[in-house]
Design brief:
There is one protein chain. The protein has 278 residues and is α/β, with parallel strands linked by helices. The protein folds into two domains: 23-99, no CATH class; 124-277, CBS-domain (Roll), CATH 3.10.580. It has helices at residues 20-32, 34-59, 65-82, 99-115, 133-136, 156-169, 191-199, 203-211, 215-219, 235-245, 265-277, and strands at residues 88-91, 94-97, 124-127, 144-149, 173-179, 185-190, 228-230, 249-253, 259-264. The strands form three sheets. Strands 3-4-5-6 form a four-stranded mixed beta sheet. Helix 2 (34-59) packs antiparallel against helix 3. The radius of gyration is 32 Å and the shape is elongated. The model is unreliable at 1-18, 91-102 and 104-115 (pLDDT under 50).
């Protein structure tokens, strides 16, 4: 645990002159403040306004008090808008809203995205210990998840053969999900990651962790991930978790922690962009 150490400052009898570095930092913060930027913008509009008046007097010969009054009010209005202090401007029948419309749009978009439940890819799931299933699978299956239940009696060579066959025949076989003895979600990995494990020197230890129901040893294997989202969560929440965990996909579970499917970051991003475009 890290502790925050605070020291009581010593009161000096004389005022210490701030260092050049401190002065530079204060100047930088001052220049970056919203009010300063707004004031600079207003000043620029004043200069442009007087330039327009000068040109109009010289070229057109106009000398109107309303124009001068407008120029005097313009910097105040521009400062208020740029600094965010002004929500709307109304001149006659013309009305312009700034801050309020921006907040409404933001709230509306956020509400729509968060209300949209996570979109689960259509998947077909197959059990690793039933090798005959491989012959019955439809070649046109779009998404395939291989499920492996812990506490079984798998052989490394059989698992390797099964995974290789799936990878060679189905380009959409991408993920492997590990389930406990009651069929509830434990963790998942990619098809390529499990292939590397089964071809490595750790294959026997990896399969033994599955057979002996050693969850701790299983999740320590390279590429095995425990992240998940609930079926009741939104697409936006699912995307946030994937970005935070640096994942291309994440498992979706129901209220009983049973596997419901898998969502991919690319699919979620596309769906969110379509929602924003509507």
């Amino acid at each position: 645990m890290s502790l925050l150490s605070l020291e009581l400052p010593i009161m000096a009898s004389s005022i210490t002159k701030p260092s050049d570095k401190q002065s530079e930092d204060r100047l930088t913060k001052l220049l970056e403040s919203k009010d300063i930027k707004a004031a600079i913008t207003a000043f620029i509009f004043v200069l442009l306004g007087f330039l327009v008046v000068a040109v109009s007097k010289k070229v057109i010969g106009t000398d109107s008090d309303p124009i001068v009054i407008t120029l005097l009010l313009l910097p105040i209005v521009m400062y208020s808008i740029c600094s965010g202090r002004l929500g709307e401007v109304k001149v006659g029948e013309v009305e312009a809203k700034f801050q309020s419309l921006k907040d409404q749009a933001k709230d509306s978009i956020s509400s729509e995205l968060k209300s949209e439940q996570v979109a689960i890819n259509n998947v077909q799931m197959y059990i690793v210990d039933d090798y005959n299933n491989l012959k019955d699978m439809d070649d046109r299956t779009e998404n395939i998840i291989l499920t492996i239940s812990l506490g079984k009696d798998y052989q490394p060579i059989t698992c390797l053969k099964y995974v290789k066959n799936l990878l060679s025949r189905y380009i959409n076989f991408k993920y492997v999900v590990f389930l406990d003895t009651s069929g509830k979600f434990i963790a998942y990995t990619t098809a390529k990651a499990i292939l590397q494990l089964l071809e490595s020197g750790d294959a026997k230890r990896f399969v033994e962790a599955i057979n002996s129901n050693q969850v701790y040893d299983l999740i320590r294997c390279p590429g095995v991930v425990r992240a998940k989202v609930s079926i009741d969560e939104s697409n936006l929440n699912a995307l946030e978790k994937m970005v935070k965990e640096n994942l291309d996909a994440i498992v979706v579970v129901d209220e009983d922690n049973m596997l419901a499917g898998i969502v991919e970051q690319e699919h979620i991003t596309s769906k969110l962009l379509l929602e924003l475009a509507k």
